[in-house]
Structure prediction request, 252 residues.
Amino acid sequence: MQLADLKWSDVASLSKDTPVVFPVAALEQHGRHMPLFTDSLLLGEVVRRASEKLGDRVLFAPLLWLGNSDHHIDFPGTLSAAPRGYLDMLETLAENVLVHGFRRIVFINGHGGNDVPGKQAVFELRQRHRSESGLLLLFATYWLLGGKPHEVNREIKQQRMGHACEWETSMMLRLAPHLVGDLSKVQPVEFGNPFEPASRGWITKDRTEPGHIGDPRFATAEKGETLFSVFADDVVRMLNRVIAWNGSDWSG
Ligand SMILES: [Zn+2]
Prediction:
């Protein structure tokens, strides 16, 4: 169910064990062939499919389109909440629903730059509410929930998320093909190895001139349908685990 559609009295009558989901995405450059709103459109579709399957068992807040995209800010049109401000915003949203009595809060993420502040937010929230029991605070990125799209559709070449890549371009071709530019002029950009397994600080200009990372030329709408269905199923599976949690176990 959608928070935006409810009256406050409807929210008051919900079980406090109802998981509250905050979908978090971005508005940032996605190469010369994809729109700035890519991450928000794609996560919106993943969440829409998941919410249809979950019905009244999960409460979805509206998608937060402003993400931490500082690394893309050199590309015109990108809008970014700087990391520390973004961290505070995520924590504030969680604090709001804690005031309303909810105990299970899940951020479903659709943008890589939100990963570090998002994990820091759930970590800090737990420290601040350390005397409370029955709290479940999760941050989950939709393409990292275990699904392997390339094993479902063998035509899919890419095996991890890039940027405006085969995966994202395929999903956009499935969702809104009129927003995808001419792919015949797009050149592949390698993922490279940025001193792995160390974690390197980076700006997008370090890695790519056009803005994408990966090979969008392999994108098709059919692959996009596979990707959406794998990722939506993964989100449903994760939220079913949240619903089934007994309120005290470490494992879930
Ligand atoms: Zn993206």
The pocket of zinc ion is lined by residues 30, 38-39, 163, 168 (CB under 6 Å). Residues 141 and 156 are 20 Å apart (CA to CA). The first helix runs from residue 8 to 12. The mean pLDDT is 97.
